[in-house]
Specification:
Elements: H1 4-17, E1 21-27, H2 28-35, E2 46-48, E3 63-66, H3 78-84, E4 88-93, H4 97-104, E5 109-111, E6 117-119, H5 125-134, E7 149-154, E8 157-162, E9 165-166
Antiparallel strand pairs: 1-3, 1-4, 2-3, 4-7, 5-6, 7-8, 8-9
Amino acid sequence: MIPAHVDEHLRQYRKRHYSGRVLVLVDGIQYQQHTGQQLIPEDDMVVSLFAGTKDIALAHAGPWLVDPKTARDRVADLGELEQARPGVIWLITSENLERQAEKLRPHLDTRLPNRRSALLRFWDPRVLHALDAACQEKASRGLFRTAAAWQYLNEGQRFTINDNGIH
């Protein structure tokens, strides 16, 4: 079930852009711990962001992108998961599932000051919240431009991030 606040944001987006959808970033390990089941890839319903990357072996625990409209009978209630665990981020986008995944994959790794690479857990609402606070310069907000809006719960409060910051 899509939370009412997310659904309302989608309606407003569609008024301005004539189309749009909700996709959901889901933490695989949080999903598994909550439901006792692993997410599995299914065409046009569920895709691992680690698919096609060097981290594919970690797919079960990593970020998944879900289309709640087409996958509703195949995945547990993501609204319930969002209330129970920090593992759900709702995206308002005009992209289909695979195209949105392609836009997010380049942001999985980040370069550290010492030139090493690190996994950027942007699918965790706690990390996303801190990341938004740290990335105030327009040049550092590329991740947030991959979707029209990002909605999530942090410490029981709903936040929306777009390219302009938190609302």
